[in-house]
Records
---
Amino acid sequence: MITGVINIGSENISLDIAQNNQNDVEIIESLEYPLFLGRDTFTLGRISFEKVEIMSEKLNGFKRVAEEYGVKNLKIVGTTALREAENVDFILDQIETKTGLVIDVLDDYEEKSHIYMELIRYFEKHRRYKKNDVLFVYIGTGSMGLATYSKGLIDSSQNIKIGSVKVSEMLKDLEEDTLYYSNLIREYLSTFFQPIMVWLNNKKIRTFVTCGNEIEFLASLLNKDNKEVMNISRSEFYSLFEKLKSKNATELSREYNISESKANSLLSALAFYKMLLEVSNAENILVFPMVNLSKSLLYQKLLSRRYRRFFNLLIKSTIISARNIGKKYFYEEKHSQTVENYALKLFDVLEPIHKLGKRERLLLQVAAILHDIGKYVNIKKHYLHSHNIIKSSEIMGLTSRELDIISRISYFHSAQDLEIDDYSAQVENQQDKILITKMLAILRLADALDVAHERKLGDIDISLEENRLTITTHTKRETLLEEWALKRKDNFFLEVFGVNPILEKKE
């Protein structure tokens, strides 16, 4: 099987065509064209018409090459430069009109998840580095992703809206006014030092794992030429840093025969990695030059069965990440687990009615874990605080849209007399509106079954027959409170599913 990926990045657009070779991906054609869309987006906020014309022309060329190789399912993705452009919707429409190609603009979280899975895949081959907690680092052109990895799973992540190209574009007007431009970059990045250090509290990081053109170039300056992994010690990096820190982009460009644009990005990356070494206390940097977004997407398409294992790891990481956020805000773990268990049981039994899939089940699970997290801020209007915390959190493997869905479910879960019209006007997307309604009905019912936060009902049995949902408990304890709570929320459930929930007690 032969497939291809076009990646529209901040600095260039690229085409990679590959085929599966036993247990890995073999690149058989790779093309690249420098376009520097990031310059437009990061300085002007929008991409110029001229560059859209050039992009259309190059995409048509890439499309022809892919067709010559027999590629039937060409995937086209866009990242930061497109994602943050104010005129992205018009650009996508123009591109589709001129080329017939539909661009999938990846959410920032989605982009990072693909990279992390590739980093895990390569890191697992080097077991001698797996003794301590590991920091995964992905410094993109417009954002920086950080994730902590322990015991085979990612347990927390951070996404910072600043990257190597974005920094250099933001500060380039000041370059002529300072003797050491790299010092200016480091001063700017110092504002991120304390928040990252707090986030890494109690983590014993010895290695940070990364990929990217800038760190590969820096590794080459240290005579690291391994094609699969390059190990840079702390002392080696510091020596290189001392050598380069006083140089400006023009000097780097001349000395290493690179463009001034690349030299600027290199100076930014140098400052990023110096900060991360200091804040993490890592002893070395592992660089995987084979890892990039296109390679991850190709692996996913060509080796879907093997990829499924890493996708399952990502789902486990999502749940662990959610639980860790709960612990951070001192959530009621026992109640959270009970509501989670009940919600998932209800979801599975109701599957013939709601017709939702595994991804929606995961979103419901996260919502159940975090629905009461706002009580850390204030018990009064805790649902509002839950919404705000979830909305602003980083949960590994979830997109900003999915976080928005979960936060909305958490906001309305405790309302007494909820009507669909109460919130439907706030959700513009009809599909999301229906999804939120279904999951909200399930979460409200699950929460009512543990209204006392004491798991009084124990392990429940649930059965669905026609328009009746029977919830059976074998508890010997009094259940008047649970029956009362259920009645307060059963009207909404009945309206959504056309099913009447009944609590039965069998001793």
---
Amino acid sequence: MTESAQPSSEAANAPLEDVRFRSDVTVELVKAQARDSDVLFAARVSTTGEQSLDQVGADASGSAGLINFLMRDRHGSPFEHNRFTFFVSAPIFVFREFHRHRTFSYNEESGRYRRLEPVFYVPGPERKLVQEGKPGRYVFVDGTPEQHKLVDEATRRVCFEAYRAYLEMLEAGVAREVARGVLPVSIFSSMYATCNARALMHFLSLRTKREDSAFPSFPQREIEMVAERMEEFFAREMPLTHAAFNRNGRVAP
């Protein structure tokens, strides 16, 4: 994690508690009711009816072929009978992209009901800064040291001043829902996001860039950082399903 305090040159002038800057995200798996065997009993009900109940607690290790068949031929509904709940802390601009995935359920912290913490995103030195090419055919390349310095200093300056204005309004009695309007989308928020494996695979297919994807995707790096952490948990909880997802071009069934 990359985290740093406010610039010391500003500190003497600001009636602020610690303003912090991060270049990472937080993703935790809060709860998972998700196993490869969940796919099996859901799929087998179509051919065995009530006998599929025998598969509820079954060892799925011998059924990788069935899971792969379902993934390959895009029989998607058996992958919906499970549940993941993630805790995510990331910049608000990441959440604006995340919320386009309407197959997830969300609960996000509210700037109407609590004072938002002074934690802001600033790109780390490894973040590619320069976009080259036309829309739909562009790539990102490394920035120069001067560009990185500009992004870092300008981001810190603007976020610091925005949070100062936010506190001034709160101290003057302005409602939180009004005062928050001055805060930039680089401020961190937190949420719970709940989905099933089918929705998660669709998210991963769009929000990660992988050479083995049948349909290339070009996500913004910051939401890809979230997706990469979520995929680690997915692979741990449902390894056969995750392997079939990769084997079949990372296409959600």
---
Amino acid sequence: MAHAHPHPHSSGRQDGLGGPGSHAGHRPHGGHTHSHAHAHSGSGDSVEGQAEILDLDAEVLAEHLADVTRWLPTGTPPRRIVDLGCGTGAGTFALLDRFPEAYVTAVDSSAAHLQRLREKACARGVGDRVRTVQADLDAAVWPELGAPDLVWASASMHHMADPDRALRAVHDALAPGGLFAVLELAGFPRFLPENAPEERPGLEERCHAASERYHVEHVPHRGADWGPKLVAAGFAVEAERALTVNIEGSRDAAVGAYALGSLRRLRGTVEEGLPAEDLAALDRLLDTDSPHSVLRRDDLEVRTERTVWAARRGA
């Protein structure tokens, strides 16, 4: 489900960031509807594994997500918000923090993620400000969402089977003058230096290249320019911002766990696109008992790019 997070010094283009797993329809993040089992893949493709990644995404990128919510050109603070593809609630809670008078309807296809979100809402003392709705947004009929002042979709639109129809549905659901915030990712975050690991320098870039080839076929809308699509759906695009995130994580255990989970999920899409030597090196990084484990590295960073579009429905 993921998510939008600008770097404090970002140039003006991202629930987490929409990081590695938001759920708008029925697809797991990464775009594949089936998992690729492997001895070292861990639980990244399980519901619990996805939830852990979403929670880590929210923790690591919380500051950047808060910056995006402050940037939104909302005008009058929204009172009714919908979070489409909410995952475990990174966007939901950032929006509740930003707009203390607002109520959020959190929509996702995963009952387990929504349950986790409700538990977190109660623990934070905001349970009365959150309503959860389980729905497949690829279905012909959407659930009743009221007439929200703000709709937030972080790393979820590219998973839609028919995103143009989904954009029109959002337009029709919004209150007149309401705002739609679309946050999308350029790809999986990067964590390793270019010369890592020592025995296979450049491994991560080759993994990303193989993943891009996979996603061109399986997730064709990832990386789309949503501006023209929003205009075609009847919106006026008020602002677009490119966001570059670069977080040093050498002293942060959450960054190590985030890297581990993200690389596990990445492996599922690259198994057939990498030579055996690269797969072996990747598996050493994913083996938490290995001295080469990514958890034991002190040179990790979180590097990613996102774009956020803010579009208005006519009054």
